[in-house]
Design goal:
Length: 339
């Protein structure tokens, strides 16, 4: 095998994914809805995969203890098997670093599993297409399928029961449509309920789950058309509808999944106030309390100032559309084998 170094950027869903498909093998991690996202330049993960004397996983310089790397090693197994190799997978040293301006509360599983997938495929000398890599990244984390591509991206649901056509495709290159995403952090620290567990709880208990799923295809097609037309007002309106429909489904979950705090609400209102004053800004929120606002690049600094002025906002970050995930390799002879 080779030593491979991959870089992948995180993404923010404008049309959200929340919920897994029923009646399929859980390890396929098949979403119940498609999604549409913007890859972000400022949030990136770098991951290397090399031959190691045992399987090891180091995240942000800290060696994971026994068991903690299980999801990472299972993902390596999927990539190895998909690459068509016979025999057991070689043991690997995986090192991953999140280069996020502020560590707390911003999604890293999307960029993390995208980078791991790219690095593993290259280390196993498998020249897979980006679409195939997206399918594999999805098995690690649904949102990771989208981070294989830069710019604006759609994750299609597909029809195949094995999930082989549930993969992302690019709608627009980063430079095709200048956009900005302003991230207002409303707290420090990790979220209480992770996405994977939260969406399963919504599927089982939220009376609005089916309505949420039913509305998604219509919103996705309308959002794709808005991307094609470079129509920010329409894309922004869909972004907000998708976000608030998802959060209505979350809040109606039993027990409720209320990811917001008071500052979240004030930051939403600040964006809406800006919009009322003529600055087109459209909010979205994930499974956490931070508020992300989509806007034109020329409005980003003013919007960032408005959000910084909201009492309780701890940090504001301006992102632009980010690039494709990428990978480079070197011969195993130069590999830095596990510590
Ligand atoms: C609210 O991709 O983290 O951010 O597939 O279980 O790993 P798993 O879930 P994940 O869920 C993301 C949920 C979301 C919306 C989105 O990114 O589409």
């Amino acid at each position: 095998m080779l030593t491979a170094h991959a870089t992948a950027h995180s993404n923010i869903a404008l049309v959200k994914y929340w919920g897994k498909r029923r009646g399929v093998a859980p390890e396929l991690n098949l979403p119940a809805v498609g999604s549409l996202s913007l890859t972000l330049d400022a949030l990136r993960t770098e991951t290397s995969v090399a031959a190691g004397s045992t399987d090891s996983f180091t995240l942000d310089g800290e060696r994971a203890r026994d068991g903690e790397g299980a999801k990472v090693f299972a993902h390596l197994d999927h990539v190895w098997a998909s690459a068509g190799h016979a025999g057991p997978r070689p043991t690997c040293a995986v090192e991953s670093t999140n280069h996020f301006p502020t560590a707390a509360g911003l999604a890293s599983s999307a960029s993390g599993f995208a980078a791991l997938t790219m690095a593993a495929a290259a280390a196993f000398e498998w020249d897979a297409s980006r679409g195939t890599l997206s399918t594999l990244a999805r098995m690690g984390s649904g949102s990771a399928a989208r981070s294989i591509f830069g710019g604006l991206v759609r994750l299609d649901l597909g029809d195949n029961p094995d999930g082989s056509d549930c993969r992302a495709r690019r709608l627009a290159q980063p430079e095709d449509w200048p956009l900005s995403l302003v991230v207002a952090q409303t707290t420090v620290g990790r979220k209480a309920v992770g996405s994977t567990g939260g969406m399963e709880r919504s599927r089982q208990t939220s009376p609005y789950f089916d309505a949420w799923i039913d509305a998604s295809p219509r919103e996705l097609d309308a959002a794709e058309a808005a991307v094609e037309a470079r129509d920010l007002a329409t894309l922004g309106a869909i972004t907000e509808r998708s976000c608030f429909a998802m959060h209505a489904c979350m809040i109606a979950t039993d027990p409720p999944l209320l990811y917001w705090n008071g500052v979240t609400v004030e930051a939403i209102k600040a964006c809406w106030e800006a919009r009322a004053q003529g600055l087109p800004a459209f909010v979205t929120i994930d499974a956490g309390p931070h508020v992300k606002a989509l806007c034109r690049p020329q409005d980003a600094a003013a919007l960032a100032d408005l959000l910084r002025a909201v009492p309780g906002v701890t940090d504001v970050l301006v992102c632009r559309p980010g690039p494709d995930a990428s990978v480079r390799t070197q011969p195993a002879a130069h590999a830095e084998v596990g510590q």
